[in-house]
Design a protein that fits this description.
By secondary structure, the protein is an alpha/beta fold. It has nine helices and seven strands, in the order βαβαααβαβαββααβα. The relative contact order is 0.19. The mean pLDDT is 95. Bound molecules: BIS(adenosine)-5'-pentaphosphate (AP5) and magnesium ion.
Length: 213
Protein backbone atom coordinates (compact mmCIF):
# COMPACT_ATOMS: atom_id res chain seq x y z
CA UNK A 1 0.00 0.00 0.00
CA UNK A 2 1.43 3.36 -1.06
CA UNK A 3 -0.03 6.43 0.60
CA UNK A 4 0.60 10.13 0.02
CA UNK A 5 -0.35 12.59 2.78
CA UNK A 6 -1.44 15.99 1.50
CA UNK A 7 -2.22 19.10 3.51
CA UNK A 8 -0.95 22.50 4.55
CA UNK A 9 2.03 22.92 6.88
CA UNK A 10 0.76 22.03 10.33
CA UNK A 11 -2.34 20.20 9.11
CA UNK A 12 -1.26 17.10 11.01
CA UNK A 13 0.31 15.06 8.19
CA UNK A 14 3.20 13.94 10.37
CA UNK A 15 1.00 13.19 13.39
CA UNK A 16 -1.30 10.96 11.32
CA UNK A 17 1.46 9.39 9.21
CA UNK A 18 3.15 8.19 12.40
CA UNK A 19 -0.08 6.50 13.54
CA UNK A 20 -0.74 4.91 10.14
CA UNK A 21 2.84 3.63 10.05
CA UNK A 22 2.41 1.95 13.44
CA UNK A 23 -1.01 0.50 12.60
CA UNK A 24 -0.12 -0.92 9.17
CA UNK A 25 3.61 -1.58 9.65
CA UNK A 26 4.66 0.72 6.81
CA UNK A 27 7.70 3.01 6.75
CA UNK A 28 6.86 6.69 7.37
CA UNK A 29 8.91 8.82 5.00
CA UNK A 30 8.92 12.55 5.73
CA UNK A 31 11.16 14.62 3.45
CA UNK A 32 11.12 17.38 6.09
CA UNK A 33 12.40 14.91 8.73
CA UNK A 34 15.13 13.67 6.37
CA UNK A 35 16.26 17.26 5.71
CA UNK A 36 16.24 18.07 9.45
CA UNK A 37 18.29 14.95 10.20
CA UNK A 38 20.84 16.04 7.58
CA UNK A 39 20.98 19.56 9.03
CA UNK A 40 21.61 18.13 12.49
CA UNK A 41 24.37 15.89 11.17
CA UNK A 42 25.92 18.75 9.17
CA UNK A 43 25.88 16.90 5.83
CA UNK A 44 26.21 18.70 2.46
CA UNK A 45 22.55 17.98 1.77
CA UNK A 46 21.62 19.53 5.12
CA UNK A 47 23.74 22.62 4.46
CA UNK A 48 22.06 23.11 1.11
CA UNK A 49 18.51 22.58 2.43
CA UNK A 50 18.76 24.74 5.57
CA UNK A 51 18.67 28.14 3.87
CA UNK A 52 15.50 27.29 1.97
CA UNK A 53 13.78 25.75 4.97
CA UNK A 54 14.52 28.59 7.37
CA UNK A 55 13.11 31.02 4.78
CA UNK A 56 9.93 28.94 4.46
CA UNK A 57 10.74 28.14 0.83
CA UNK A 58 10.83 24.77 -0.88
CA UNK A 59 14.10 22.93 -1.37
CA UNK A 60 14.69 22.64 -5.17
CA UNK A 61 12.86 19.76 -6.87
CA UNK A 62 15.99 18.23 -8.34
CA UNK A 63 17.60 17.69 -4.95
CA UNK A 64 14.39 16.59 -3.23
CA UNK A 65 13.33 14.12 -5.94
CA UNK A 66 16.76 12.46 -6.01
CA UNK A 67 16.74 12.04 -2.25
CA UNK A 68 13.19 10.66 -2.15
CA UNK A 69 13.60 8.20 -5.02
CA UNK A 70 16.72 6.88 -3.35
CA UNK A 71 14.82 6.42 -0.08
CA UNK A 72 11.83 4.56 -1.61
CA UNK A 73 14.16 2.18 -3.44
CA UNK A 74 15.16 0.77 -0.04
CA UNK A 75 14.29 -2.84 0.83
CA UNK A 76 11.94 -1.75 3.61
CA UNK A 77 9.74 0.01 1.02
CA UNK A 78 8.89 -3.08 -1.02
CA UNK A 79 5.56 -3.55 0.77
CA UNK A 80 4.63 0.12 0.42
CA UNK A 81 5.13 3.34 2.39
CA UNK A 82 3.57 6.56 3.60
CA UNK A 83 4.92 9.76 2.08
CA UNK A 84 4.57 12.83 4.30
CA UNK A 85 5.59 16.16 2.76
CA UNK A 86 6.32 14.68 -0.67
CA UNK A 87 5.31 15.37 -3.39
CA UNK A 88 4.92 19.10 -2.86
CA UNK A 89 5.01 20.32 -6.45
CA UNK A 90 3.58 18.97 -9.71
CA UNK A 91 7.08 18.16 -11.07
CA UNK A 92 7.77 16.11 -7.91
CA UNK A 93 4.49 14.20 -8.35
CA UNK A 94 5.27 13.55 -12.00
CA UNK A 95 8.79 12.33 -11.17
CA UNK A 96 7.37 9.90 -8.60
CA UNK A 97 4.69 8.70 -11.03
CA UNK A 98 7.25 8.13 -13.76
CA UNK A 99 9.40 6.06 -11.45
CA UNK A 100 6.43 4.00 -10.21
CA UNK A 101 5.22 3.41 -13.75
CA UNK A 102 8.54 1.76 -14.59
CA UNK A 103 7.75 -0.76 -11.85
CA UNK A 104 4.12 -1.14 -12.94
CA UNK A 105 2.99 0.46 -9.68
CA UNK A 106 0.96 3.47 -8.58
CA UNK A 107 -0.06 5.50 -5.53
CA UNK A 108 -3.08 3.81 -3.91
CA UNK A 109 -4.31 6.60 -1.64
CA UNK A 110 -3.76 10.36 -1.45
CA UNK A 111 -5.19 11.65 1.82
CA UNK A 112 -5.75 15.38 2.08
CA UNK A 113 -5.88 16.56 5.69
CA UNK A 114 -7.91 19.77 5.51
CA UNK A 115 -7.31 22.56 8.02
CA UNK A 116 -8.10 26.25 7.38
CA UNK A 117 -5.21 28.73 7.49
CA UNK A 118 -6.63 30.41 10.64
CA UNK A 119 -5.97 27.26 12.71
CA UNK A 120 -2.49 26.67 11.38
CA UNK A 121 -0.55 29.48 13.03
CA UNK A 122 -1.87 28.47 16.44
CA UNK A 123 -0.88 24.85 15.90
CA UNK A 124 2.63 25.75 14.82
CA UNK A 125 3.31 28.10 17.71
CA UNK A 126 2.47 25.31 20.18
CA UNK A 127 4.29 22.52 18.38
CA UNK A 128 7.17 20.79 20.13
CA UNK A 129 9.13 18.01 18.46
CA UNK A 130 11.48 15.32 19.62
CA UNK A 131 14.85 15.72 17.85
CA UNK A 132 15.70 12.09 18.63
CA UNK A 133 12.68 9.96 17.64
CA UNK A 134 10.59 12.50 15.72
CA UNK A 135 7.46 12.34 17.91
CA UNK A 136 5.33 15.49 17.74
CA UNK A 137 3.46 17.24 20.56
CA UNK A 138 1.43 20.38 21.09
CA UNK A 139 1.62 22.43 24.31
CA UNK A 140 -2.15 22.75 24.48
CA UNK A 141 -3.69 19.99 22.32
CA UNK A 142 -1.28 17.06 22.71
CA UNK A 143 1.00 17.79 25.69
CA UNK A 144 3.75 15.34 26.69
CA UNK A 145 3.24 13.63 30.07
CA UNK A 146 6.25 15.45 31.50
CA UNK A 147 6.76 19.05 30.39
CA UNK A 148 9.48 19.43 27.76
CA UNK A 149 10.31 15.70 27.66
CA UNK A 150 9.45 13.13 24.98
CA UNK A 151 7.05 10.39 26.19
CA UNK A 152 8.59 7.88 23.77
CA UNK A 153 12.33 8.24 24.33
CA UNK A 154 12.92 10.77 27.13
CA UNK A 155 14.80 13.31 25.00
CA UNK A 156 14.33 17.05 25.48
CA UNK A 157 11.71 18.52 23.12
CA UNK A 158 12.65 21.35 20.76
CA UNK A 159 10.95 24.09 18.71
CA UNK A 160 11.44 23.86 14.94
CA UNK A 161 13.45 26.70 13.36
CA UNK A 162 10.74 27.30 10.75
CA UNK A 163 7.83 27.60 13.21
CA UNK A 164 8.18 31.38 13.74
CA UNK A 165 4.88 33.10 12.76
CA UNK A 166 6.45 35.05 9.82
CA UNK A 167 7.96 31.84 8.41
CA UNK A 168 4.70 29.95 8.89
CA UNK A 169 2.88 32.61 6.84
CA UNK A 170 5.46 32.26 4.08
CA UNK A 171 5.10 28.45 4.16
CA UNK A 172 1.32 28.82 3.83
CA UNK A 173 1.75 31.04 0.74
CA UNK A 174 4.11 28.52 -0.80
CA UNK A 175 1.60 25.75 0.01
CA UNK A 176 -1.30 27.49 -1.75
CA UNK A 177 0.83 28.39 -4.71
CA UNK A 178 2.79 25.17 -5.34
CA UNK A 179 1.34 22.29 -3.34
CA UNK A 180 -2.43 22.73 -3.39
CA UNK A 181 -2.58 21.94 -7.16
CA UNK A 182 -1.67 18.36 -6.18
CA UNK A 183 -5.20 17.90 -4.84
CA UNK A 184 -6.52 18.10 -8.38
CA UNK A 185 -3.62 15.97 -9.66
CA UNK A 186 -4.59 13.07 -7.39
CA UNK A 187 -8.31 13.65 -7.83
CA UNK A 188 -7.86 13.08 -11.57
CA UNK A 189 -6.07 9.82 -10.82
CA UNK A 190 -9.10 8.76 -8.75
CA UNK A 191 -7.17 8.20 -5.50
CA UNK A 192 -7.98 11.39 -3.57
CA UNK A 193 -9.68 11.24 -0.16
CA UNK A 194 -10.31 14.19 2.14
CA UNK A 195 -10.50 14.20 5.94
CA UNK A 196 -11.40 17.04 8.30
CA UNK A 197 -8.11 17.85 10.02
CA UNK A 198 -9.70 20.15 12.59
CA UNK A 199 -11.15 17.18 14.49
CA UNK A 200 -9.32 15.47 17.40
CA UNK A 201 -6.23 13.49 16.45
CA UNK A 202 -8.01 10.18 17.21
CA UNK A 203 -11.08 11.12 15.14
CA UNK A 204 -8.92 12.11 12.19
CA UNK A 205 -7.16 8.75 12.50
CA UNK A 206 -10.51 6.86 12.57
CA UNK A 207 -11.56 8.65 9.38
CA UNK A 208 -8.28 7.66 7.71
CA UNK A 209 -8.60 4.02 8.81
CA UNK A 210 -12.08 3.93 7.24
CA UNK A 211 -10.59 5.10 3.97
CA UNK A 212 -7.74 2.57 4.02
CA UNK A 213 -9.79 -0.51 4.92
P1 LIG B 1 7.85 19.56 6.56
O1 LIG B 1 8.64 19.06 7.68
O2 LIG B 1 7.18 18.61 5.65
O3 LIG B 1 6.82 20.64 7.08
P2 LIG B 1 5.33 21.01 6.64
O4 LIG B 1 4.75 20.37 5.44
O5 LIG B 1 5.34 22.47 6.63
O6 LIG B 1 4.46 20.34 7.62
P3 LIG B 1 4.66 20.28 9.14
O7 LIG B 1 5.61 19.18 9.48
O8 LIG B 1 4.96 21.65 9.65
O9 LIG B 1 3.19 19.92 9.58
P4 LIG B 1 2.43 18.54 9.66
O10 LIG B 1 1.30 18.56 8.68
O11 LIG B 1 3.35 17.38 9.63
O12 LIG B 1 1.76 18.71 11.09
P5 LIG B 1 2.11 18.05 12.51
O13 LIG B 1 1.63 16.63 12.52
O14 LIG B 1 3.48 18.32 12.93
O15 LIG B 1 8.79 20.50 5.64
C1 LIG B 1 9.60 21.50 6.22
C2 LIG B 1 10.39 22.21 5.13
O16 LIG B 1 11.24 21.26 4.46
C3 LIG B 1 9.56 22.83 4.00
O17 LIG B 1 9.10 24.12 4.33
C4 LIG B 1 10.58 22.82 2.85
O18 LIG B 1 11.50 23.86 2.97
C5 LIG B 1 11.33 21.52 3.07
N1 LIG B 1 10.70 20.40 2.35
C6 LIG B 1 10.14 19.28 2.89
N2 LIG B 1 9.65 18.48 1.94
C7 LIG B 1 9.91 19.09 0.75
C8 LIG B 1 9.62 18.78 -0.60
N3 LIG B 1 8.96 17.65 -0.93
N4 LIG B 1 10.03 19.66 -1.56
C9 LIG B 1 10.69 20.78 -1.24
N5 LIG B 1 10.96 21.15 0.02
C10 LIG B 1 10.58 20.32 1.02
O19 LIG B 1 1.09 18.91 13.41
C11 LIG B 1 1.31 20.28 13.65
C12 LIG B 1 0.99 20.62 15.12
O20 LIG B 1 -0.41 20.45 15.36
C13 LIG B 1 1.70 19.71 16.13
O21 LIG B 1 2.04 20.44 17.28
C14 LIG B 1 0.62 18.64 16.46
O22 LIG B 1 0.82 18.11 17.76
C15 LIG B 1 -0.66 19.45 16.35
N6 LIG B 1 -1.77 18.67 15.84
C16 LIG B 1 -1.75 17.69 14.88
N7 LIG B 1 -2.99 17.19 14.66
C17 LIG B 1 -3.82 17.89 15.51
C18 LIG B 1 -5.23 17.85 15.73
N8 LIG B 1 -6.03 17.00 15.06
N9 LIG B 1 -5.75 18.71 16.67
C19 LIG B 1 -4.94 19.57 17.35
N10 LIG B 1 -3.60 19.65 17.17
C20 LIG B 1 -3.05 18.82 16.25
MG1 LIG C 1 5.48 17.18 9.49
Amino acid sequence: MKIVMLGAPGAGKGTQAEKIAAEYGLPHISTGDIFRKNIKEGTDLGKEAKGYMDAGKLVPDELTVRMLLDRVSGDDCRGGYILDGFPRTIPQAEALDGELKKLGEDIDFAIDVEVPDENIVKRMSGRRACPKCGATYHLEFIPPKKEGICDECGAELTIRDDDKPETVKKRLDVYHDQTQPLIEFYEKKGVLHTVDGTADVSDVFEAIKNILK
